[in-house]
């Protein structure tokens, strides 16, 4: 029972957002070089999960300190509003802080081993990832500076794919970069749409994410750009001959994006009506990721 509590505190339902880019980077490495090490793949995957888990736990801790989770009296758990471990009295704030730091130390330890084993160029990816995991929420938090969305796109898209690719090949690739861009855009879209139901609590706590800065009415249109932009970069990559033609079939998932966009445009001020839009965005990220992975393997 206690193990399940510690696991739930990390919000494992969102681990897929870091796992799929690691799979994608490995698939691109196979496409480019026919190279794959299950051992290094597993280590990279575990390092990514540890970093994401640490970020989620520390986010809950710092959101408790700035009162945004306290102000959020009707959260859309498990989609938004944190794990509620502190608010529900399951874990103390100090326990969450220590847990987050332990997870971060484990991620650093594993990351340093990968740097030693695969090469120092991997160091800058790990350095940015660890700093992002902590300072995404810790003062002066990146989301208070309006950089939270960019941080998510960078870490759960570009860097995750590049890191997984490097672990396999010990080099970087323009193909891996183009493959990472849809992942970056859709990961950012997941965070972005989750900010709408949390709008009142985030504003009361002084969070300065994009939705708070723009206001919900104006902010809703930028979600469309994230969804459509994510598919546009796939076409651009194909046109520049950096992505295999098969990746274009990811466009068959676009109706999920249209569903999310339509609901958000109509119900951006109605918290519970946004649940299908949030679900569609998460599924869209998974479907596009899986198709890109298979497209590289099949090509």
Q: Can you tell me the number of structural domains? A: 1
How many E-type strands? Answer: 0
The biggest sheet, with number of strands, parallel, antiparallel or mixed sense and barrel status, is:
none
Number of helices: 13
Describe the structure.
The chain is mainly alpha-helical. The protein has one domain. It has helices at residues 2-9, 16-33, 38-65, 68-71, 93-118, 123-135, 148-169, 174-194, 199-204, 210-214, 216-239, 254-267, 275-298. Helix 7 packs antiparallel against helix 8 (174-194), helix 8 runs antiparallel to helix 11 and helix 11 (216-239) packs antiparallel against helix 12.
Q: Helices, strands, pairings?
A:
Blueprint: H1 2-9, H2 16-33, H3 38-65, H4 68-71, H5 93-118, H6 123-135, H7 148-169, H8 174-194, H9 199-204, H10 210-214, H11 216-239, H12 254-267, H13 275-298
Helix pairs in contact: 2-3, 2-7, 2-8, 2-13, 3-5, 3-6, 3-7, 5-6, 6-7, 7-8, 8-11, 8-13, 11-12, 12-13
Quick overview of this protein structure:
The protein is mainly α and 299 residues long. It has 13 helices and no strands.
Keywords for this structure?
about 300 residues; mainly alpha; 13 helices
């Amino acid at each position: 029972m206690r193990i399940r509590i510690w696991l739930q505190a990390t919000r494992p339902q969102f681990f897929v957002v870091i796992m799929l880019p690691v799979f994608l980077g490995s698939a691109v490495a196979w496409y480019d070089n026919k190279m794959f090490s299950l051992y290094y793949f597993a280590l990279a995957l575990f390092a990514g999960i540890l970093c994401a888990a640490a970020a989620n736990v520390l986010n809950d801790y710092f959101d408790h300190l700035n009162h945004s989770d306290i102000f959020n009296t009707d959260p859309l758990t498990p989609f938004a509003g944190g794990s509620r471990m502190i608010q529900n009295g399951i874990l103390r704030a100090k326990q969450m802080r220590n847990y987050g730091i332990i997870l971060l130390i484990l991620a650093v330890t594993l990351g340093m081993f990968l740097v030693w084993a695969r090469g120092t160029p991997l160091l800058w990816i790990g350095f940015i990832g660890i700093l992002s995991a902590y300072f995404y929420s810790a003062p002066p938090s990146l989301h208070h500076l309006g950089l939270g969305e960019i941080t998510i796109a960078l870490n759960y898209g570009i860097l995750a794919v590049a890191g997984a690719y490097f672990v396999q090949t010990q080099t970087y690739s323009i193909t891996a970069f183009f493959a990472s861009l849809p992942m970056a855009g859709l990961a950012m879209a997941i965070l972005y749409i989750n900010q709408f139901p949390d709008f009142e609590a985030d504003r009361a706590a002084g969070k300065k994410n994009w939705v708070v800065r723009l206001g919900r009415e104006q902010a809703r249109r930028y979600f469309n750009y994230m969804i459509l932009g994510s598919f546009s970069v796939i076409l651009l990559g194909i046109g520049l001959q950096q992505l295999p033609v098969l990746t274009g079939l990811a466009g068959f998932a676009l109706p999920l994006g249209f569903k999310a966009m339509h609901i958000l445009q109509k119900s951006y001020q109605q918290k519970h009506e946004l649940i299908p839009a949030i679900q569609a965005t998460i599924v869209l990220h998974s479907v596009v990721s899986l198709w890109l992975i298979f497209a590289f393997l099949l090509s």
